[in-house]
Specification:
Helix content: 40-55%
Largest sheet: 7 strands, mixed
Order of helices and strands: HHHEHEHEEHEHHHEHHE
CATH class: Alpha Beta
Number of strands: 7
Structural class: alpha/beta
CATH topology: Rossmann fold
CATH architecture: 3-Layer(aba) Sandwich
Distance between the termini: 50 Å
CATH superfamily: Vaccinia Virus protein VP39
Strand order of the largest sheet: 3-2-1-4-5-7-6
């Protein structure tokens, strides 16, 4: 049977089983992705928050490219394409406007430097987890785009591209995701065991420390991988979900989050016999929200990059979802794959129905004045070897 031969029913079923087994195995390794497709619970239809981040960063990104990008060096090898990568692109709907903005800003820089005749071709690499819906990315590519597109599946916490092959790296709303939840928080023999909880908020200090240490190691891995892939003088723009500086007590990090609200729904379902206590004790969200000084310290420990700019985006009022339904579908688009991997798909409707009702009854989460999340903009330059 060749690649061009249509699959008969028997072979088609066997192929589908093989694909399911492969996805299941990847899920065991901690891989997950945003909801694919373009349906009502898809990330494509429920990611206006992330699109707001891109819009808020547009002016700063254009300014930094105009001031910091060395196009004269690239023009000396003008037959080479200008290569850009988006690390953590999901299904692409928020990546496309970001890539268009970056390529247009680079092209403008060539013109202002008197190098209009040397504007290169652009090549964009779209990266996300192996289980990401890359079909939706390529099905949805803007027809009038000014770049060539390629997919690069794999964890961005490891090396993905050839040495010195990238001119510009970009990541938005992705570096709050850990490579996986810290192992210690699901280990009942560890002092960081997070029994009955699903995140570090409201947990003991040891749990928070396990998350913080894991995050620092992950960011170092990310920077080390990008240092190999970026050319000398190449730029990297990061839009990192974070929280303002906080104080933690000696026993816990106490600010409640919507992960805690999902956790409380799971506990309710345990009491009704819908899921086991062991399932909750072995599940933790692989998410960490840094603070500015912590992120700065982690980056400054890496010798390969210079910090060109770091600031909190002025996005107040642009990113808050005030409807319980909108907020629930947004979080379902983000977390459903992760939750299905651990708890199974049969409880998802009940879980998010409970979550929506709790959210609607909450005076905390739907009040825009209580929205404390921030986005940190970071621009790094690859130092010369």
């Amino acid at each position: 049977m060749t690649l061009d031969t249509p699959l008969d029913c028997k072979h088609k079923k066997q192929y589908e089983f093989n694909v399911r087994d492969e996805v299941a195995e990847k899920c065991k390794l901690g891989l997950h992705a945003m909801n694919g497709g373009e349906g009502p619970n898809s990330y494509a239809q429920n990611s206006t928050y992330q699109r707001g981040v891109v819009d808020a960063a547009k002016t700063i990104m254009e300014e930094e490219i105009a001031m910091k990008l060395d196009v004269k060096h690239h023009s000396s090898t003008h037959k080479m394409p200008f290569r850009i990568a988006d690390f953590g692109c999901s299904t692409g709907h928020n990546s496309f406007p970001a890539m268009q903005m970056i390529t247009e800003a680079v092209e403008k820089k060539f013109h202002t430097e008197g190098l209009a005749s040397r504007v290169p071709d652009f090549q964009v690499f779209f990266n996300d987890q192996l289980v990401n819906d890359f079909n939706t990315i390529f099905h949805s590519l803007p027809p009038e785009r000014n770049y060539h597109a390629a997919g690069v599946p794999g964890s961005f916490y490891s090396r993905l591209l050839p040495n010195a092959s990238l001119d510009f790296a970009y990541s938005s709303c992705a570096l709050n995701w850990l490579s996986r939840a810290p192992a210690a928080v699901a280990d009942h023999t560890s002092s960081a065991w997070n029994e009955g909880k699903v995140h570090y908020t409201g947990a003991r200090h040891e749990v928070f420390e396990a998350y913080a240490n894991h995050y620092a190691n992950d960011i170092q891995s990310f920077l080390e991988a990008r240092a190999q892939e970026l050319v000398s003088g190449g730029l990297m723009a990061l839009l990192v979900p974070a929280v303002p500086s906080f104080k933690i007590s000696n026993t816990s990090y106490t600010t409640p989050t919507e992960m805690d609200l999902i956790g409380s729904c799971l506990v309710d379902m345990t009491k009704r016999g819908r899921i086991s206590k062991e399932k909750i004790d072995s599940f933790n969200f692989p998410l960490y929200f840094t603070i500015p000084r912590e992120l700065q310290a982690i980056i400054e420990r890496n010798p390969s990059f210079s910090m060109e700019r770091m600031e909190i985006l002025n996005n107040q009022g642009k990113l808050t979802l005030t409807s319980a339904h909108a907020r629930a579908t947004y979080l379902r688009a983000v977390f459903e794959g992760l939750l299905v991997n651990h708890f199974g798909g049969e409880i998802m409707d009940e879980l998010f129905d409970r979550y929506t009702k709790k959210l609607a009854a909450s005076s905390l989460f739907l009040d825009p004045n209580n929205e404390k999340s921030i986005i940190i903009f970071v621009l790094l330059k690859r130092k010369a070897e």
